[in-house]
Amino acid sequence: MKPSARQSGFSLIELLIAITLGLVLTAGLISVFVSSKQGYRVQESRGRMQENVRFSMEYLSQAVRLADFFGSAQPATVTVLGTPSYTGAGGCENGWLINPNEGLRGYGGGTTYPGDGLPSDCLNSSTVAYIPSSDVLAVRYADPSAGFTEATFTANLADATAKTSMLTNGKYFLRVLAGARGVIFDADADSGTGITALPDPGSAPGALLNYRFKSEVFYLGNFTPTGASVATPTLHCKCTTVNGVTARQLVEGVEMMKFDYGIDSNDDKLVDRYLSATDTQTASRWPNVLSVRIGLVVRGDERDGFTDTDSYALPSGFSYTPATAISRFQRFAVVREVQVRNRVTSR
User: What letter does residue 265 receive in the DSSP assignment?
Assistant: First the structure.
């Protein structure tokens, strides 16, 4: 019988070498995984940033296009019935909100609060901090998507359930005789039959229509969601509702917002030059604004492995440079010109 071959295991040195090589290989795989995961998160952040750019610009563009729409009636022919009662926005409430003579008005950014006459305490909040230097835009219009014939409107006011639903997004309505003049009134205070006692907008032939009156104030604020420890720059809107003025968070990541206003100096329906809110305010040119140049800087929500040292050129000659503490976020700047179409077509 042949003697069995002698068997031997790994020596201690060989075992240590194998473990070391395994650890090096594992560390490399972990590094690749972490880098891949971070790259994926940054890529996702970039996608969300691009979506936020589109959403922000869409919100603002739609508001500018609708500014000064009062059911084919000119702002000067629209009156307000009674004393408007809206609370929840400091100085930006009551008659300031329900004002058809200021369908569009901007306010230049300030060091601690917007300038150019924005009422005090309008944007102050315990949870939202105004972002210095950012501009504010206020628009007022009759919502064309919330139009009612006289018969339908009266029927809705007479039905408690229908009335509650109708008033959810605002209690003030514009009752207008198409092409003539109109009146803005508090539908929440109406009994349901008292609508017929409201002053008739005019005696000219035409259909009586009712639209929900909307007032929106767009601004930027650092918002800290419940449970979060870090504030995020966010596009906000102070909007009219049935109970007062509600601050809504629209789009996260909007770091800076600036506007220029296209002025028609000779009433030929063409923009002659663009001015900042301060220059427009000084010259009282707001009724002659035919277009708005909107400038935004929007950032992602994940830090990247680079430092953003760029300066972003925005309307009003403003240059935005990110602070060092937030320089590792990706950013996208966009400038768009939007026409105040109701002024162009009605003048």
Answer: S
